[in-house]
Amino acid sequence: VAKKSGRGEVRFFNDAMNAAAKDALVIDGALRSAIAGQEFRLVYQAITSAASGALTKVEALLRWHSASLGNVAPDRFIPVAEDSGMIVEIGTWVLNEACRQLGVWKAGALGELTVSINVSAWQLADPAFVGLVQQALERNSLAPRQLELELTERVLIDNGGEVQSVLAQLRGMGVGISLDDFGTGYSSLSYLTQFHLNTLKIDRAFVMNIEHSERSNNLVHAIIAMGQSLGLQLVAEGVETAGQASILRQLGCHHLQGYHISLPIPADELPAFACRLKSAAAVAEVAEDA
Ligand code: C2E
Ligand code: MG
Ligand code: MG
Ligand code: MG
């Protein structure tokens, strides 16, 4: 159409092909060699017990340093990898790498730890997925409870019935399932009972305002109460201040994650960080007993 109508139309077409689409094309091209080029790595963000401050688990977050584009943030490349289906291959790399790292930690001073990884709809729809999880656990001599899968509400909606049985299988094995970014998606509360979840992650968007907005505070309070009544573990995401941590603790949130506790850090920095958390938790306990 653009060609037939002459130069004006062609320009219109070029303009309309916006920056985002061009960006996606460039990213898509560069992503194709990212695994082979060993351009991915994982960083790990601590999730701590709200009550004791002890490390309960870590979330693995993907980082990409592209040879041609430099560092590219997940929010820019994950959607592109989802559009092309490449996320299945990338997600398998994440699963294997996180489990390999867990195995390394298990053998060292850190001991047994749980890692949660983010999983896309495409991965869950892949008939090979449960087997891949099983293999990754076995290869590294891990207990299934050491692995948790973070799904978003979109994953549940997109796949419906099949996802339910995949999640039932994984839960049956002992793998944890958590619902990420809770409250931002197309929340239907029926998901909470339907999908074999054991953890709810309250999105940063709500946590952000709890100190200053009564509405946010009430909302988080309600989410925590509801989660508790369903027997779910609650993690607050994006905890950036001591004030937020203290409110969340009072509201009965079980676990905290965010820059206030730790940035995502490389694997080799985690043992020292866990040590610091342990001594801080011990000091807090002594102070409480006194
Ligand atoms: P997410 O799973 O909700 O991860 C939390 C994001 O919030 C991470 O961003 C983390 O670095 C950031 N964050 C943590 N604490 C704070 C805080 O206190 N304040 C603020 N402002 N941000 C905080 P990141 O690493 O850029 O990842 C963004 C999203 O990309 C993730 O959101 C997840 O949806 C996706 N993602 C990351 N790694 C993977 C992966 O391996 N597979 C898939 N499918 N998605 C991934
Ligand atoms: Mg997540
Ligand atoms: Mg999240
Ligand atoms: Mg998110």
Question: What characteristics describe this protein?
Answer:
alpha/beta, EAL domain-containing protein, 12 helices, 50% helix, binds ligand C2E, binds magnesium ion, 290 residues
Give structural notes.
The chain starts with 6 loop residues before the first helix and ends with a helix. The chain contains twelve helices and ten strands. 50% of the residues lie in helices and 19% in strands. An eight-stranded mixed barrel has the order 1-2-4-5-6-7-8-9, surrounded by five helices. It has helices at 7-16, 19-31, 74-84, 87-107, 121-125, 129-139, 153-173, 191-194, 204-207, 214-229, 242-250, 270-289, and strands spanning 40-49, 55-66, 70-72, 114-118, 147-151, 176-182, 199-202, 233-236, 255-256, 265-266. Helix 2 (19-31) packs across helix 3 and helix 4 runs parallel beside helix 6. The chain is α/β, with parallel strands linked by helices. Strand 5, helix 7 (153-173) and strand 6 form a beta-alpha-beta unit.
Bound molecule kinds, no repeats: ligand C2E, magnesium ion
Decide which structural class fits the backbone. Answer: alpha/beta
Q: H/E element string?
A: HHEEEHHEHHEHEHEHHEHEEH
Helix content: 40-55%
Protein name: EAL domain-containing protein
Domain EAL: 24-278
Organism: Pseudoduganella danionis
List the helices and strands and how they pair.
Blueprint (H helix, E strand, L loop, with lengths): L6 H10 L2 H13 L8 E10 L5 E12 L3 E3 L1 H11 L2 H21 L6 E5 L2 H5 L3 H11 L7 E5 L1 H21 L2 E7 L8 H4 L4 E4 L1 H4 L6 H16 L3 E4 L5 H9 L4 E2 L8 E2 L3 H20 L1
Parallel strand pairs: 2-4, 4-5, 5-6, 6-7, 7-8, 8-9
Antiparallel strand pairs: 1-2, 1-9, 1-10, 2-3
Helix pairs in contact: 2-3, 4-6
The structure holds ligand C2E and magnesium ion (3 copies).
The site of one magnesium ion has 4 residues, from strand 6.
